[in-house]
Design a protein that fits this description.
Number of strands: 5
Order of helices and strands: HHEHEHEHEE
Number of helices: 5
Helix content: 25-40%
Radius of gyration: 29 Å
Shape: elongated
Strand order of the largest sheet: 1-4-5-3-2
Oligomer: single chain
């Protein structure tokens, strides 16, 4: 099969001005070359992380005073939820999938950790989580429910049963995507 003279001239006319590529590098496909992030990519990642933290911490106002029942057990049920959920939480019917221990943290550190837990619940589609506040000065134990009720995806919270920390912990139910 030979090319006609017209085809050869047409080809040469079309590639006029093209430069020949120099192939002098061989990359072994068995060797994985790590990608180096550029400073722009690093900056974008940091900006995304900062924006995400700001979005999450938006829900936590220190001035908000919810109407929580003042009996011996702290509990909350979002409007429109089945009241049976509180009973199930109290009995320990839900096993927490994530645990957060706030022992020894300052108020601001606890707020950041709580925001991270709620973000993880949303990202990983976690239904139930446990938050350990400890006894200490009761500062976190009083503040944690005030923060949690502000988040729109927290369905319910209740003082944990003995099996999950008792008076020193809370169980929360989180809205998941089905």
């Amino acid at each position: 099969m030979s090319l006609e003279q017209d085809d050869i001239q047409l080809f040469r006319r079309e590639i006029r001005g093209a430069r020949k590529l120099k192939q002098d590098t061989y990359v072994d496909p068995r060797i994985v070359v790590p990608r180096i992030k550029t400073t722009a990519a690093k900056q974008k990642q940091q900006n995304n992380k900062l924006a995400q933290q700001q979005d999450i911490s938006f829900y936590f106002s220190d001035q908000y005073e919810p109407l929580l029942e003042q009996d011996s057990k702290v509990r909350y049920l979002r409007a429109g939820e089945d009241s049976h959920l509180l009973k199930q939480l109290r009995r320990g019917d839900f096993a927490p999938e994530l645990f957060l221990d706030l022992h020894g943290l300052t108020r601001e550190q606890a707020k950041a950790e709580l925001a991270a837990l709620l973000h993880a619940c949303e990202k990983e589609n976690v239904f139930c989580a446990s938050i350990m506040t400890g006894y200490g000065t009761f500062a976190l134990k009083q503040q944690i429910p005030r923060w949690l009720v502000q988040h729109p995806k927290v369905r319910a919270l209740h003082q944990a049963p003995k099996a999950w920390g008792g008076d020193a912990a809370f169980l929360i139910l989180f809205e998941t995507v089905t």
